[in-house]
Specification:
The protein is α+β, with helices and mostly antiparallel strands. The protein has eleven helices and seven strands.
Length: 256
């Protein structure tokens, strides 16, 4: 399928911001955004976030990718689909195997941008024996404002279809419980996913999650985490002034 298309500049800028060495190195991580007519843009496999250019973004059709999850497709089927679902631009680039995870999240209302990174501070926790304990609950108000009422924790799953299925199922359960899709998703022994409504939103979520990881690690060494109560979390999430601030933060340009 051939179609002239230009990727959004914000996706290039977001990718480069997520390519900070503390967030992702070499070809680690990827970023995506919803496009039009059931398509999305995603970083090409093997490309570096830090130096990403427009020619290293691939446009994909969403439906064939999400169907891989429904069918629990094999590696060979995934490889074939990643080729056939690409909107041909005349270049040999191909989408990351983690396109399955991105396509799954971009199906949710309110999620139009996704960033996946491997931050050192976060992976110190996701690779620890205290994964669930240290990432539970909320410990300061800005976590609620930026990361949402709770985080979604995903047990280790092989990148590709297994991870895409785990993330989609986890996000669906989260939606039932909190009536909104997850914004902060932690992958055991793997990394972090930010799911937001804009490029700035995804960057904000990622940076706040890194700060949160540092705070939680330090608090654990100082005797343990003191969590906010459920009532305080609900109150913070419902405040009108918080809604106003969130709107401003999400709409701010990446360069500011």
């Amino acid at each position: 399928m051939k179609k002239e298309a230009t990727p959004p500049r914000d996706l290039v800028e977001l990718s480069r911001a997520l390519g900070d060495p503390d967030l992702a190195i070499l070809s680690e991580g990827n970023a995506s955004c919803r496009a039009d007519d059931g398509t999305f843009w995603i970083k090409a496999s093997g490309a570096s976030l830090a130096t990403l250019g427009e020619t290293e973004l691939v446009k994909m059709r969403s439906e064939p990718i999400t169907r891989l999850l429904d069918e629990r497709a094999s590696d060979q089927q995934v490889a074939e689909c990643l080729r056939s679902a690409k909107i041909d631009d005349g270049r040999p680039t191909r989408a990351s195997i983690e396109a399955t995870m991105h396509a799954a999240l971009l199906e949710f209302d309110g999620v139009s941008w996704v960033g996946h990174t491997h931050p050192s501070a976060i992976n110190a926790i996701t690779c620890s024996l205290r994964f669930g304990e240290l990432l539970a609950g909320r410990v300061f108000p800005e976590e609620v404002v930026v990361l949402g009422p709770a985080s979604l924790l995903i047990e280790y799953a092989d990148p590709g279809v297994p991870l895409g299925i785990a993330v989609r199922e986890g996000a669906r359960e989260y939606l039932k419980k909190y009536h909104q899709p997850p914004r902060a998703i932690y992958l055991k022994n793997h990394g972090f996913i930010a799911a937001g409504s804009s490029a700035r939103d995804v960057l904000n979520i990622t940076l706040m999650a890194v700060k949160s990881a540092k705070v939680r690690t330090a608090a654990a060494m100082l005797g343990g985490l003191h969590f906010m109560s459920d009532a305080d979390v609900r109150r913070m999430g419902a405040r009108a002034d918080v809604d106003y601030r969130k709107k401003l933060m999400v709409e701010r340009e990446l360069s500011k």
